[in-house]
Amino acid sequence: MTEVQDHAIPHDASFDQEAELRNLNDQMKRRINERNQLSEEGVRPYPYRFDVTGYSKTIIAGYQEEKPETVAVAGRIMTLRKMGKASFFHIQDTEGKIQIYIKRDEVGQESYKTFKLLDIGDIVGIKGYTFRTKTGEISIHAQEFQLLSKSLRPIPVAKEKEVDGKKVTYDAFSDKETRYRQRYVDLIVNPEVKETFIKRSAIISFMRNFFSERGYLEVETPILQPVYGGAAARPFTTHHNALNMELYLRIANELFLKRLIVGGFDGVFEFAKDFRNEGIDRFHNPEFTQVELYVAYKDYYWMMELVEELIYRTNLAISASESTTFLGHEINLKPPYRRISIAAAIQEYCAVDIRDKSETELRNTAKDLGLSLDPKISSGKIIDEIFGEFVEPKLIQPTFIIDYPTEMSPLAKEHRSEKGVVERFELIVGGKELCNSFSELNDPVVQRERLEAQAKLRLRGDDEAMIVDEDFLRALEYGMPPCAGLGIGVDRLVMLLTGQDSIRDVIFFPHMKPE
Description:
One of its GO terms (biological process) is lysyl-tRNA aminoacylation. Homodimer. It is found in: Cytoplasm. It catalyses: tRNA(Lys) + L-lysine + ATP = L-lysyl-tRNA(Lys) + AMP + diphosphate. There is one protein chain. With 515 residues, the chain is α+β, with helices and mostly antiparallel strands. The chain folds into 2 domains: 2-182, CATH 2.40.50.140; 192-337 and 397-505, 2-Layer Sandwich (BirA Bifunctional Protein, domain 2), CATH 3.30.930.10. It is built from 15 helices and 21 strands. Strands 9-13-14-21-20-19-18-17 form an 8-stranded mixed sheet, sandwiched between helices. A hairpin with a 3-residue loop joins strand 2 (70-82) and strand 3. Helix 11 (359-368) packs parallel to helix 12 (379-390). The longest helix has 24 residues, at 17-40. It is elongated, with a radius of gyration of 29 Å.
């Protein structure tokens, strides 16, 4: 009996790399020869169609001993035990794995001959009936068999051996960087990865329905923008040949969505791909997904309650739980969430009062706390650095940080009862920002003053400061009603609700350094 599994590529770091490449080349040559042999014998290695009637998990769950079911299944061969006149193998389909029993006298001499040329990784179709083997495993007895795709590159297959009475897995496809680069292989050999992305889809679907049921309209706004804005970030720049003009990949969709509120929509939202030309780490990817929502006649107090309900109900929908585990912490998502101003939070965790301090005083405070700062940054950035270093990582349970200094939030409305701050909140969970919201500034005169102040910061060297967007200001001059706005980082929300430690684990194809 030959175990094709023994041909799997080893991925243990102790293996010699050149030997591993030689092994890979030998296996690929063998598989290409098998492909050519199949073609010469009149077997299509890549046929056009196979009609599937059932899937592994559903078939196993619905199995009835007294009533065998005739099914047609298709999937990738994951284990293979070739014997003389009868063999066993497992296929993996979109739901999971199921065992197949194939017998030469049942499928015919030619089909069985084709089967003998197959390998782990090949995709096949089987028609047959369900039964239970002597060992109790629900399986499919093949009556017809068809090759659907010959795999020329062997997939890595984890092996197990017993060491001191315990099962030890080796040769697993576990290297993080390789998994991210070859997500297609990761999904094949690590089925739990697929579950994360199925949950991601469910999270987005639930949020979309949550907004739509309240009467808010899903819209689309430009990705290529002549003036970028809506966030403090560096853009990616491109060139439009026909118009001979510079364009920017959007860093946010806020200013276009607010134009729609001006135009008369009372509630709009967009799931958007945004792009920021910044560093890459566990919580940042230069291309990311966020949802932004703008609702007329509401303020940031109303939006806090909506966010609490949204996150709580989304988690219930995918996990039937009021809590989640994130970065090693058990986090209770049941409302209400704590609310504290950014000044009070810094005073609580750093024992310093930042209110009414000049830029020089703030810089000295940061220095006393041990921060080394870029001399070009202004008061708002200094406060942000203090908060990000000493406060944010300690906010594990959901916390609304509210009432930011005006300079930190040029698009937010001045606070109705406190000078020098605006009506803004950020929700921090597990030590990370999850969403951002304002009572939106709708006074065009004040908005112009704020954006012109940002322009001065750019002259000081702050390349993340906002640009004066004349068309946006023109829209505000026509009149925008009171409005609450919200932006949620979808990737980070998925991390939180699925318990993933890195943004790369919730994005199918994260950006990587060149190989």
